[in-house]
Amino acid sequence: MQPELHTHADIYSKQFPTFGRPKVIGYIGLENLMFAKCVQNKKVQFDLNLHSEKAIRKPNDRDVKLDDLSYFLVQNETRLDFPLETQLNNCKIFCYRGLMTCVACTPYENREPWKIVAILHKGNIYLCARDTEEKLIQKRNMTEQDQKFTSWGYKFEQYMLSEHPDSEPNPDVPVDETKEFSLVLTTNLNQHTIVYGAEMDGIRCDKSSGPPAPDAERGAEEIINYLSDKEFVELKTNRHIQFARQETSFKRFKTKKWWCQSFLVGIDTILCGFRDDNGIVEELKVFPVRELAKMSERFWKPNVCFNFLDTFFTFVKRCLSRKIKHLHGEQGLKNLQMLPMISLLLEWKPGMPVMVSENYAYEDDPIFPQYFLDNYRKSL
Questions:
Q1: Which parts of the sequence belong to the RAI1-like domain (predicted)?
Q2: How many whole angstroms separate alpha carbon 169 and alpha carbon 172?
């Protein structure tokens, strides 16, 4: 019988698990690093439709695999010098922040199913979200209005962020939605060591004259020290809250995701632009991340989210162990570095437990670029 993981919130209501403050170990797209000079409650008039007809759109059918993280790992393998683990429990877990947010919110989710591939490769565990059938249909049927909502978020960032700490934002140009800056971080959740990429909006420079931008010609360690010392801010947009049901929806759904996203990368402040139905932002409001859970405690609890995330990682390792023993016997668990790639598919639908399938074929849906397979830990 295949193992299952139950998701009911009551199961995970014990105290908050041990979670270390995330440590920056790298970056992707330094040329796209941005800065926020205005992080305050304020009345504004931002037209999110400005130059929308000329915007460079991010494809809505984009398939997020592990390309960026894979290239980062190859390029920084010597510098990072990750040890070769021999015990499955000690294997590092590599993924993106979005996957962890999705998993952590599962005990309170009642609408969006998910599908995740887990791969053991040369002693590391890689997790990658895949599109469900529902998501593929949603992408195919994405309306012009859906695209507009997505683009408004990028335009809001353009109103709030500038390329240098001492310059002003310039929204009077079309947005390039494909530009991204990401941090690569590591932390521990109980006994699990996680390495993950996370797209970041910008560095706060509203409390002082502003930190100088990092020189891309400097060494990686110097740039990482610079980034580690800075406070990032998360930018969001939301429709004006006018009715009780809108406030309930905001606290039940939005705050949970916002809190998870920010907490996972050590962000303390979210700045939200509240807009009308025509895409005009009229108010900026600052949300301290620690306050989100307090204002929404009727609907969700942080300890439940992170206890489930911890249990999910344990479940993945248990399922991989089961498959290794089935294919290679107990001896396989003592020789992880030399095992061929081991893969699983984990699926969840609202109201159901997490199900695992051992029949996932990597060749039918590869999540790594060939460059990574050819070069990472080449000596093994």
A1: 42-322
A2: 9
Which residue, 297, 293, 308, 232, is CA-closest to 11? 308
Q: Are 286 and 40 in contact, with CB atoms under 8 Å apart?
A: yes
pLDDT digit string (tens) for 9-50?
999 999 999 999 999 999 999 999 999 999 999 999 999 999
Residue 143, pLDDT above cutoff 90: no
Taking each helix axis from N to C end, the angle separating 255-263 and 302-332, rounded to the nearest 10 degrees, works out to 60
pLDDT digits (tens, 9 = 90+) for 104-129: 999 999 999 999 999 999 999 999 99
Contact between 268 and 277 under an 8 Å Cβ cutoff? The reply is no
Q: What's the chain look like in SS3?
A: CCCEECCCHHHHCCCCCCECCCEEEEEECHHHCCEECCCCCEEEEEECCCCHHHCECCCCCCCCCCHHHHHHHHHCHHHHCCCCCCCHHHCCEEEEHHHHHHHHCHHHCCCCCEEEEEEEECCEEEEEEECCHHHHHHHHCCCHHHHHHHHHHHHHHHHHEECCCCCCCCCCCCCECCCCCEEEEEEEECCEEEEEEEECCEEECCCCCCCCCCCCCCCHHHHHHHHHCCCEEEEEEEECCCCHHHHHHHHHHHHHHHHHHHHCCCCCEEEEEEECCCCEEEEEEEEEHHHHHHHCCCCCCHHHHHHHHHHHHHHHHHHHHHHHHHHHHHHHCCCHHHCCCEEEEEEECCCCCEEEECCCCHHHCCCCCHHHHHHCCCCC
- The neighbouring-strand residues paired with 114 are 348
What lies within 8 Å, CB to CB, of 285 at 6+ separation is: 41, 271, 272, 274
pTM of the model: 0.96
